[in-house]
Amino acid sequence: VTVTVRLFAYYAETLGATELSLDLDGEPTVLEAVNAIRRLPGGSVIPPNPLVAVNRRYAQHSAQLSSGDEVAMIPPVAGG
Amino acid sequence: MMRAGIVDGEIRTAALISEVAATGNGATSIFLGMVRDVNDGREVEGIEYSAYDDMAVAEIRRILEEAAARFGVEHAVVEHRVGVLAVGDVSIAVVVASPHRAAALEATRYIVDETKKRAPIWKLEHYADGTREWVGAPDTAA
Question: What is the Cα–Cα distance from B77 to B57, expressed in whole angstroms?
Fold first, then answer.
């Protein structure tokens, strides 16, 4: 399963990318994507339990991912 | 009409008021958020806003639908600005019109609060002393 990962704000700055492609084995969940990203250089900036959106909607860590999904790591939001 | 937008230029409040106007509306409620000169005791020069644009629009649309269901409002617009803003610039406008004031006021409050909590938007504060910090980030991340 190949998903597109989107990174923002200080997650993007620390990991040095705003978008990357991630290959995951089997029938991966959001949590497995989070764990894979946290293993990248700088990935520890992302906490073990981050907010995640799949296809522009907040998702549970147990949600199943499909090929082509857009998985976004959402830093603490601060709009307004 | 209900609309959410992420914009990179000045928010034109008068245009938003016109957008929600309808002859049946006797009340229009407006909230404007502005960049403040001090945050947590530090002198702020400006704020750089960034957003996950597509999702921010989608999430604010969901909030507008919730406000419609809760308060019965049918005319609301939200614009959030991104880019570098100076002190005093408007960062967010929420404009709601409805037949009576209670629904417009309550819906405005709901939309502002939920947008601040849920819309994927971030701010990088630039301070007068030359430093900068991501609002909401742990100290080590800036």
Answer: 11
Please count the other Cβ atoms lying within 10 Å of the Cβ belonging to residue A15: 21
- A-B Cβ pairs (cutoff 8 Å, strict): 75
ipTM (interface predicted TM)? 0.95
For residues A2 and A66, the answer to whether their CB atoms sit within 8 Å is: no
- Indicate yes or no: CB of A78 within 8 angstroms of CB of B142: no
Nearest to B142 among A10, A57, A78 (CB): A10
Q: Residue B139: which pLDDT band, with cuts at 50, 70 and 90?
A: confident
Q: pLDDT digit string (tens) for A13-41? A: 999 999 999 999 999 999 999 999 999 99
Residue B134 forms contact with A (CB below 8 Å): yes
Whether this prediction's pTM lies above 0.90 is answered by yes
Could you tell me if A24 and A6 are in contact, meaning their C-beta atoms sit under 8 angstroms apart? no
Q: Do B136 and A57 touch (CB under 8 A)?
A: no
- Listed residue (B86, B13, B4) closest to B53, CA to CA: B4
Closest residue of B to A19, CA-based? B52
CA distance linking residue B103 with residue B80, whole number of Å: 22
